[in-house]
Every structure is written in structure tokens, then in C-alpha cells.
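Problem 12. The chain below contains 229 residues. Write out its predicted structure in C-alpha cell notation.
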Amino acid sequence: MSGVVVIGGTSGIGREFARVRAARGDEVVITGRDAHRTDTAAKEIGARGLALDLARPKGIAAALGEVGTVDHLVIAGVSRDENRVSAYDIDAAIHLVTLKLVGYTAVVHALRSRLHDDSAVVLFGGQAKERPYPGATTVATVNAGVTGLMHTLAVELAPVRVNAIHPGVVGDSPHWRAKPEQVLAGVRARTPTGRLASVADVVDAVDFLLRNRSVDAVELSVDGGWLLG
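Solution.
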């Protein structure tokens, strides 16, 4: 039985990963911004819920104060952002940069003493860093920043392993499932595998990064080869 912490585990990929690990019998802690929503999600999947806002990093250590030994740490918290240089929303940009770079780092800082030599960490980035789209000004920047964060954490936390996962379009995720079929069909047509990544695909990839003891400082793309399309 492992101690698993999923930051951003109330919905989407984070929630499904937490559900799978709880079903295996692991002790799982999930976090979310809203206390009621987090508690509800935790009860539904057999986990423990903690309220935590990555965009308010000064409160992260206190929020995680009662967490015990951490074998596997997944930081999957995200915030959807539409930002362009031509119409730059500075407050939105600061929010996302704080959440994903400062917030992610603050989580690791808070839990550092609870990690051990065989612990593993997975950070969530995204393929916008390689193929930006209109409105991805901040998203592409912070996801590229996840690469640098992964590298420095892998060095500083060694022998704790730190890897990053970069999902492409995840067709059955809450965000993409709501898109018009013609949008998804266009992405599918440019994907060499001819299919979109699924939530289950990403969950399996995260699990691999956590359990394979020889994989460290690796960026894993889960996109069906979309970047080649």
C-alpha cells in the first residue's frame, strides 16, 4: 500500500488517477480549491480530501500539514487560460504562472520532508509548449516552464525521481468532450494513430512514470504522435 497525493484531484485526469489508485487499496489524498467539492469527490473515490489553492502558494504548507509519508506525488492542478499578446490580461497571466510554477514548487517544498529515497513525483505540463495556438500565450509559457522545474527538482531532490507528463488533446476529458465534433475530428485527422488520447491513456502513463524506478527527469508525451501531424 502506497501513500499517494494528487494535487488537483477533484476532476478530470487527476480525479481518475486518484480513483484508480484508491481502488487498488492505496491511501490517497486529493486536493482542490473548494473544500465542499473536494470532500465530495474524495468520498466518492475512497480518498481523503484537503482544500488547497495552488494560486495562493503561501497557504499550501499549512493545508498539507497533516499529510504523512508520500510515496507518489502527482501535481495535476491546472487552470484554463485564454491570453494573447494583442489583448494581454496581466492578472490572468499572473494567476496561471503563480498556480503552475510557484504553486507546484511550493507543494514540493511543503512535502519535502515526507518524501523518501524511493518516492516519485509527476508534474503535469501540456503540448501547447511545443505547438502553441492563438490564446496560448501564457499556457505555452508555463508548460515550457514545467520542463525547467522538472530538471531542477530532479537534481535537487535526488534520489527522488521527478518526471513530467505532457498530454495532447484528451478526447474524453471534461474540457475536450464539450468541444464540437468537427474540432475533434480535425485533431484526429492530424494524429498519426488516428485516435485521440483518452483519460485512461494518461492515467496509465502517469502510473508508469511513478513505478518505473529507472525513469527520471523524463518528459513523456501522450498525444498519439500529434506533434508529427
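Discussion. The radius of gyration is 17 Å. Students who got a different answer should revisit the alignment rule from Section 12.3.
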